[in-house]
Write a structure and sequence with these properties.
Elements lengths: L17 E5 L4 H12 L3 E5 L3 H8 L5 E3 L7 H15 L4 E4 L14 H29 L3 E5 L14 H19 L5 E7 L20 H13 L4 E4 L1 H12 L2 H14 L1
Parallel strand pairs: 1-2, 1-4, 2-3, 4-5, 5-6, 6-7
Length: 262
C-alpha cells in the first residue's frame, strides 16, 4: 500500500507530455491549457465551441483543437482515436467539462436534471470507456477529474451540481484503488469558487473567489507533487471539509443558516 502525500506519479517535466483537456473552451480548462503549453507540453483542447478553443491555443504550435460533445459516446471514441493516431497515445486526460446554474429543489425540471447529469457525470464515464483501454494496455497514463468542494456536502443552491460533483469524488476514489496497481495515476481536483461564465450566474457572495489562472497554478502544483486530491483555495476548501465532518445535528444547522444568508 502507498501512504503519504505522493500517491501519484509526480508530473514535473511537461516537455513532450501529451495532455488532453476536455472542457477547455473557457475557465479552468482554458487557463490550464495555456499554462501547460507554456511549459512545453503537447496540449489537445476539446469542447463544442471551435472558435473559443482556437483562441486558447492561438500561436502555440503544440496546441491541437478537437471539437466534440462530451454527452456523445461516439465523439469520445472518434476524438480519442484521432488523437492517438496523431500522437501515438495520451499521457494525461483532464476532465473539465461541467454544466451549472444555481438551483433550488423547487425549481427542478426533468430536462435540466438530465442535461446536468449527462454532462457532469455520464460524460466522464463515456470518456473513461474510451481512454482507459489504451492506458491499461501500456500500463501508463493519468486521469484527472475536476469535481468541486460542492461535492463535499449538500450546499444550498447546488441541487444538481453538488450531487453530480459528489459522484465524481466517489468515482475518483474508486478509480484510484482500482487503477493504481495497473500503473495509472488518478488525480481528484476540487476547486472552490473560481471566476468563470458559470459562477457568474451566482447571485450570492462567493468567499475566496479566485481567477482561472490561480486555479491552473494550484492544479499544476498538485500534479507536480503527486497529490491525489488537489483542493484550493485551502482557506475555503478546508472549512467546507470540516463542516462535512461534523455531526449532522451541527452541519445541517450550519447549512440552514447559509440558506438564510444566501
Amino acid at each position: 500500500m502507498v501512504f503519504g502525500l505522493h500517491l501519484n506519479p509526480r508530473l514535473r517535466d511537461w516537455h513532450g507530455k501529451r495532455v488532453w483537456l476536455v472542457g477547455a473552451s473557457s475557465g479552468i480548462g482554458a487557463a490550464l491549457a495555456k499554462a501547460l503549453l507554456g511549459k512545453g507540453a503537447w496540449v489537445a483542447v476539446s469542447a463544442r465551441r471551435a472558435d473559443a478553443l482556437l483562441a486558447v491555443v492561438e500561436g502555440h504550435p503544440k496546441g491541437v483543437v478537437l471539437t466534440m460533445d462530451v454527452r456523445q459516446p461516439q465523439d469520445w471514441t472518434a476524438t480519442h482515436d484521432a488523437l492517438c493516431e496523431a500522437w501515438q497515445g495520451v499521457d494525461l486526460v483532464v476532465f473539465c467539462a461541467a454544466d451549472y446554474r444555481p438551483l433550488s429543489p423547487w425549481e427542478l425540471s426533468a430536462r435540466e436534471a438530465h442535461d446536468t447529469i449527462e454532462t457532469n457525470v455520464c460524460g466522464v464515464y463515456y470518456g473513461l470507456s474510451a481512454v482507459l483501454p489504451a492506458m491499461l494496455l501500456r500500463r501508463s497514463g493519468g486521469i484527472a477529474i475536476v469535481a468541486s468542494v460542492a461535492g463535499y456536502i449538500g450546499l444550498p443552491g447546488a441541487t444538481l451540481y453538488g450531487p453530480s460533483k459528489a459522484a465524481l469524488i466517489n468515482l475518483a476514489e474508486l478509480l484510484y484503488t482500482e487503477l493504481h496497481a495497473h500503473g495509472l495515476g488518478v488525480y481528484l481536483i476540487n476547486p472552490g469558487f473560481v471566476k468563470s461564465r458559470l459562477t457568474a450566474r451566482n447571485t450570492f457572495r462567493m468567499p475566496a473567489l479566485i481567477t482561472p489562472e490561480v486555479a491552473a497554478e494550484a492544479i499544476l502544483t498538485g500534479l507536480e507533487r503527486g497529490r491525489f486530491e488537489i483542493a484550493f483555495p485551502q482557506r475555503f476548501t478546508r472549512l467546507v471539509r470540516l463542516i462535512s465532518l461534523l455531526p449532522y445535528r451541527i452541519s445541517l444547522g450550519l447549512l440552514q443558516r447559509l440558506t438564510r444568508i444566501s
